[in-house]
Amino acid sequence: MEVPFLSLEAVNARHADELKAAAARVIDSGWYVLGEEVAAFEAEFAAWCGVRHAIGVGNGLDALALLLRGYLELGRLAEGDEVILPGNTFIASFLAISANRLVPVPVEPDPASFNLDPAHVEAAIGPRTRAIMAVHLYGQLADMPSLHALAERHGLLLVEDAAQAHGAAWNDRRAGAFGDAAGFSFFPAKNLGALGDAGAVTTDDDALAQCVRALRNYGSEVKYQHRLRGTNSRLDELQAALLRVKLRYVDEDTRLRRRVATRYLDGIRHPQIVLPSVGREEAHAWHLFVLRCRHRDALQRHLLACGIQTQVHYPVPPHRQPAYAGLLDVHLPLTERLHEEVLSLPLSPTLADADVGRVIAAVNAFRSPA
Ligand SMILES: *Cc1c(COP(=O)(O)O)cnc(C)c1O
């Protein structure tokens, strides 16, 4: 009996009847792109996040890329402008920036929270800096009050990569409602997951919302009239209908994720393992439970031998990927060390209590190589 890292089959099986009914509704409607389901999901997701607008797009990378493109169209960003972001993020955060001929400027994170450290952000602000991209990594909100103050002081845009943090909250405000705009992913493994690729932009900015709405649909607001050189990145009716079902359960799922994480935090005791630090409980949506261990590879092998699947998020930081060879002179020793030490334990709303106990016992029994 294995403890899976994440069983999407188990996650979706809980709602199989409702999901199949939603899919049948779309199939029978004969309307598959930009229709009632997308409009309804956009309204429901915007209300849930506490923002005026949600715009459904093809995936999380497009959400981030299109919101930045929107700021270029509105004249708030220009090619060559710098965007500061954490060096230890998933590469999509970088790709969204470089796809718009903007320049990603990675900085060291706070190793306790894995999120942007406002002091490092401030030190990286230069004459070409125009935006900060906060990534709520592993599901925990970045320090948005400090970053907001910093952005105000320096006249910068503050955008959120909220792909891992659906529902993470601070004083009743949710991820996606802290910055000028945010990008969400609904990739199947995310906390709110479609059954395929999907994403959304959230914002309170009417002009940006209108622009992104056009950009996702060939730059068009009226059929066959093209104000902008847009793209085709639309959330489809089928995924929207499935997401409307899943949205009704995401708060309960976050509670279940939090319960697993709390058991790990209480149960794991090991001199060579650093547990993730948590600020306010509601500020963490627990997309991933990521610990640090100097003997990470040995720990991963030990857990596998115990039948426990783990993953590494992420093995190589973006600035050390061949795709970013231009950043080879960037040195982020802390980020690089984190990538050698992080290990993600199984975490999902369907993880059985007994399996959580097995993981805790196996981690505590780890004996590091001499
Ligand atoms: C998943 C993810 C993305 C990209 O989302 P996709 O839907 O996979 O394109 C962007 N940023 C972060 C932090 C992510 O985890």
What does this structure look like?
It is a single chain. The chain has 370 residues and is α/β, with parallel strands linked by helices. The chain starts with 7 loop residues before the first helix and ends in a 6-residue tail after the last helix. Strands 1-9-8-5-4-2-3 form a 7-stranded mixed β-sheet, with helices on both faces. 49% of the residues are buried. It has helices at residues 8-13, 16-29, 36-49, 60-73, 91-98, 118-124, 144-154, 206-215, 237-247, 250-267, 296-305, 333-341, 353-364, and strands spanning 53-57, 82-86, 103-107, 129-135, 157-161, 169-170, 173-174, 181-185, 199-203, 220-222, 225-226, 273-274, 289-293, 342-345. α4 packs parallel to α5 and α10 (250-267) packs parallel to α13. It folds into 2 domains: 8-247, Type I PLP-dependent aspartate aminotransferase-like (Major domain) (Aspartate Aminotransferase, domain 2, 3-Layer(aba) Sandwich), CATH 3.40.640; 250-364, Aspartate Aminotransferase, domain 1 (Alpha-Beta Complex). The chain has 13 helices and 14 strands. β4 (129-135), α7 (144-154) and β5 (157-161) form a beta-alpha-beta unit. Pyridoxal-5'-phosphate (PLP) is lined by residues 59-61, 89-90, 92-93, 135, 161, 163-164, 185, 187, 197, 199.
